[in-house]
Amino acid sequence: xxxxxxxxxxxxxxxxxxxxxxxxxxxxxxxxxxxxxxxxxxxxxxxxxxxxxxxxxxxxxxxxxxxxxxxxxxxxxxxxxxxxxxxxxxxxxxxxxxxxxxxxxxxxxxxxxxxxxxxxxxxxxxxxxxxxxxxxxxxxxxxxxxxxxxxxxxxxxxxxxxxxxxxxxxxxxxxxxxxxxxxxxxxxxxxxxxxxxxxxxxxxxxxxxxxxxxxxxxxxxxxxxxxxxxxxxxxxxxxxxxxxxxxxxxxxxxxxxxxxxxxxxxxxxxxxxxxxxxxxxxxxxxxxxxxxxxxxxxxxxxxxxxxxxxxxxxxxxxxxxxxxxxxxxxxxxxxxxxxxxxxxxxxxxxxxxxxxxxxxxxxxxxxxxxxxxxxxxxxxxxxxxxxxxxxxxxxxxx
Length: 398
What we know:
Mean pLDDT: 92
Low-confidence stretches: 1-6
Strand content: 15-25%
Helix content: 25-40%
Number of strands: 12
Oligomer: single chain
Structural class: alpha/beta
Largest sheet: 7 strands, mixed
Order of helices and strands: EEEHHEEHEHHEEEHHHHHHHEHEHHE
Number of helices: 15
């Protein structure tokens, strides 16, 4: 199908599991047209938790814990099966026949991401990424053609493989008169700056640093695994900010690094959280104070990134927040306080539930891939040119 050819409406499932590995998001979208006249509507959304043993394996392997090539291979195929089960269960819950779904886009579970090249195996420098959750298994189990492994194609043309959602942010939120920033606070926080009446090359997007990842790690540590996140910031509300620790954390080199840039557990995973735990022990800090400080690190690093790297000409009027952090009242209040004069709202208010946005985005990216159209924004990833993202696993013949 040609790049500019109009396309008929398709039902597409998007499947997303983020760096927090807190569950599987499944979005059902109705999509038609092609950029710049792409039409996408979210029909249904479901969040499905991982089995606890699977989540423990993901977190251990993604955090650099002991593992073998056999375990990594097994996890890849196991997650393909788990994602397929999630797709089937979601369609059952939606009361939508699997046969009415034309395509699945599965982001997969990131277990390693290093967007900038580093030395490996001698003198050569390579950037690399790995998402597991075998799409061939998803296609076979569901009977639906599946697109997966989106990031490598961008990296093959010099990009960092992330962030990819800005392509969808631009399609959804571009406004002829209003400058907007789309902010997603998942495990990692990322922003997409969209000036008024922007062209694709005008968009600036990057990972600002930690979203919920550090807070989640502290909560797991403090509760001995009984809780995975700070619901409604209840633990953080009992604490106070530790200025010395916060200033030290904000001094991390990543925050000064100019875009394009992407982050993950390699920068803000268990080792980073351990810095807070060690500091807390040395200074006899309360657990609630450490969690409050980590909670404030997220919005303050986001605001710093916006002022430091988003050009003044962008004239930001609206910040649109999605992801788990949109449910954290302390994070949201700090963003509003630090961005006086900017309308801080949520993607829910614009018709896209914040928890569904990334899964919805990968439904759209899969739709672009199956029509052989590029799905990255080089201005966001640093790629030398556009790339058709993902690998297509066709459903077996019936």
